[in-house]
Amino acid sequence: MEKPDTIRSYLEAVAEQIRWRRARPVVTWELERHLEDQRDAFAAEGHENAEAMAVAEMGDPVSVGAELDRMHRPRPQWGLLALAILLALAGTVLRVWLTADWDTYYMDVNPYKAALAFLLGGGALLAGYFLDYGKLGRRGGWIYLGALVVSFLLLVASPKTLNGVRYYLRYAVLLYPLAYVLWVYACRKKGWLGLLAAMAGVLPLLWFCQYAPSTLGAFLLLSTGTLVLLVAAWQDWFGLGRQKTLWVTAACTGAAGIAGVRYIFRNAYTSTRLAAFLHPEQFLDGAGYHTFQIRSAVSGARWLGQGSWNPENPYPLTVSGSDSDTFLTTLIHRLGWLPFLAVVLAFAALAVWILLRCLRQSSQLGKAVVLAALLPLCIQSLFSTAWNLGFTLLSSPFPLITGNTSTVLDLFLIGLCLSVFREERIARDSAYDYHKVRLPRYRIKIMIQKV
Amino acid sequence: MEMDRSLVSGSMALLVMKLLEGSDMYGYQMIETLKQRSDDTFHLKAGTLYPLLHSLEEKGLVSAYEREAAAGKPRRYYHLTEEGRAALAEKEAAWNQYARAVTRVLKGGVCCGEA
Prior knowledge:
The complex is a heterodimer of chains A (451) and B (115).
Chain A: H1 7-17, H2 23-44, H3 50-58, H4 61-71, H5 78-98, H6 111-130, H7 133-138, H8 140-157, H9 167-172, H10 176-186, H11 191-200, H12 202-211, H13 215-234, H14 242-266, H15 268-278, H16 287-299, H17 315-318, H18 327-335, H19 337-359, H20 364-388, H21 405-422
Helix pairs in contact in A: 1-2, 1-4, 2-3, 5-6, 5-19, 5-21, 6-21, 8-10, 8-12, 10-11, 10-13, 10-20, 12-13, 13-14, 13-20, 14-15, 18-19, 19-20, 20-21
Chain B: H1 5-9, H2 12-22, E1 25-26, H3 27-37, H4 46-58, E2 62-68, E3 74-80, H5 82-106
Antiparallel strand pairs in B: 1-3, 2-3
């Protein structure tokens, strides 16, 4: 191999040795800055061939590249991948098994559909796992706009259920926190305008949540969005100074919170839901009825094995959503408290494991992406656990356990978290703003021979 | 004077961490500072320095961040972590003990040469 004598050819020679393509621009960026400094120093000393001298100072590009290649390899996340797949598999098997004899009520979970959802979920998990999350950060603005366009199309195309729910859009809202976080990241380094745009970006998504309608989606978006905005202010993403940004963000999110609370108390539907949550016994002919039935099922449960139930009322018909959002109650009723605790604790272990890994990340984008994926899953699990124990504020599928479409989306979000951990060795925030060293795909060598 | 490579390579991590003890630096700055402080004895190659820095970062002994240097160009700065400071103190003590022992032997040893 010919010895490189230009900065570009040196960087190409180093990059060729690094097998992990995504590591190449990150590693060569630093070497390029070094070469430029060395070249400028030689030029200042009056050397004519400063660039070639700087390249010669660096050492053999092949051995440097090989050493860097050994150091920069993706970190496989086998443990977390296995735990996520096991939980999704447990959810699929449990849903099919425990509802198998409900076919007389047409409430048995279709095993083929459940298996297909599990397979699609596995694909979504791997798609998220191998996704370059840095690219999501670089194209945050476009992804956000894409989310708005897709949401509009879903709003128009989605079939409505009997109670007016737009079926497709209801699932899409689960990805809104991620789209919003990428939007906030895209507004970085843009001063007051960036901060304003970041905060205003929540409004269109909130509008779609209202039309889904999905109170849970709105809550997930607002809670994750508020946290990420505060983190962004703390890390001074907008370049306005930490304290100033924190005050403005806290004031605006605080005002939005107060407006939200006022809305809850003034709106007839939400205020009734809240009253039924606090005093379900006063609403036994309405929202409190579900609570009463869930509490009846739970109170008759045993540690292991089927609990007691009044045989005059068929369980699947009496406990609303027993095959979907109230499936954990079914698990408690049919199999007992221990299997329920095993499922909830396994998910909690997965979430805590991911959270601890998230806190160790040096990349701001990496942290933000994990928070945007993990927080909605954790909030859903809390609401779902409370609902299934008879504290019925907001119904939600339990992540990875209930629901076909939601399991696919949950697995994608977990895959995305794992992609951040997989790439933590090359996580560099500022490197996203600098150009790549592109290796030529083909090289043409022209040799002229004198005859 | 060029040093014997085998003498330098084992202690390179110690020298790099010692440089970072005073202030955060970027790669090129480290090489130049090391050259000055060693009176032109240590000519550390960038090809040796960066894999070493990346391995120290991997072990958590240094952390890195990107910032604009004095000339306005962005540079990757390295910072000695608390864990790195503790490791440096250990390495320094071990090195001093080793250097004293080598010097004693070169001077003829405790039993024969030194009083």
